[in-house]
Automatic annotation (TrEMBL):
<protein>
    <submittedName>
        <fullName>Methionine-rich copper-binding protein CopC</fullName>
    </submittedName>
</protein>
<keyword id="KW-0479">Metal-binding</keyword>
<keyword id="KW-0812">Transmembrane</keyword>
<feature type="domain" description="CopC">
    <location>
        <begin position="32"/>
        <end position="121"/>
    </location>
</feature>
<dbReference type="GO" id="GO:0042597">
    <property type="term" value="C:periplasmic space"/>
</dbReference>
<dbReference type="InterPro" id="IPR014755">
    <property type="entry name" value="Cu-Rt/internalin_Ig-like"/>
</dbReference>
<dbReference type="GO" id="GO:0006825">
    <property type="term" value="P:copper ion transport"/>
</dbReference>
<dbReference type="GO" id="GO:0046688">
    <property type="term" value="P:response to copper ion"/>
</dbReference>
<keyword id="KW-0186">Copper</keyword>
<feature type="signal peptide">
    <location>
        <begin position="1"/>
        <end position="26"/>
    </location>
</feature>
<keyword id="KW-0472">Membrane</keyword>
<dbReference type="InterPro" id="IPR032694">
    <property type="entry name" value="CopC/D"/>
</dbReference>
<dbReference type="Pfam" id="PF04234">
    <property type="entry name" value="CopC"/>
</dbReference>
<feature type="transmembrane region" description="Helical">
    <location>
        <begin position="143"/>
        <end position="163"/>
    </location>
</feature>
<dbReference type="InterPro" id="IPR007348">
    <property type="entry name" value="CopC_dom"/>
</dbReference>
<dbReference type="InterPro" id="IPR014756">
    <property type="entry name" value="Ig_E-set"/>
</dbReference>
<dbReference type="GO" id="GO:0005507">
    <property type="term" value="F:copper ion binding"/>
</dbReference>
Length: 170
């Protein structure tokens, strides 16, 4: 019976870890609270949001957040805490492009926690640029290095062959 229960709870823990992913792995077993999600999500492309919402595993104390565009201009209002959610009002309509949120708060256990994430406000040329930039990033994966490596090997090999055939002539 105990075996069944612990196997079941292990399965639940595994499932929870799979959902929470790196956040769960980064957090020590029993320590300060952590950010469980944001809206907009990190790395997302979204319509201009009216507010930015940070959700924590527990209610946090004295939350602070700075919302900036790519030029460093600030758009965030005073963060308001309600339960496990912290809402940062957006003071002025965000223009298309990359935006960044830096946040900081005090965990219920008294430890400071902080983090950052970014999102892109969709629209016109900026959105196209953002998605093509992402494709380029994906494109310059291992293949670029493999091709460069093969080219380099070819050059070295060719050079060695040339050198050895010259030696043969002498
Ligand atoms: Cu802590």
């Amino acid at each position: 019976m105990i075996g069944v229960i612990s196997r079941a709870s292990a399965a639940v823990a595994l499932a929870a870890a799979a959902v929470a992913g790196p956040v769960a792995l980064a957090a020590p077993a029993s320590a300060h609270t952590s950010l469980t999600g944001t809206a907009p999500e990190d790395g997302s492309v979204v319509p201009a949001p009216k507010s930015v919402v940070l959700t924590f595993a527990d209610a946090v104390i004295l939350p602070q957040a700075v919302l900036t565009d790519a030029a460093g201009k600030e758009f965030g209002g005073k963060p308001a805490s309600k339960g496990k959610k912290v809402t940062v009002p957006v003071r002025k309509t965000l223009q298309p492009g990359l935006h960044h949120v830096s946040w900081r708060a005090v965990s219920p256990d008294g430890h400071p926690i902080e983090g950052e994430f970014s999102f892109t406000v969709e629209g016109g040329a900026t959105q196209a640029a953002a998605s093509s930039a992402r494709q380029e990033e994906e494109g310059s994966g291992p293949w670029t290095w493999i091709v460069l490596g093969v080219l380099a090997l070819g050059l070295v090999g060719g050079g060695l062959y040339w050198a050895s055939s010259r030696n043969d002539e002498e």
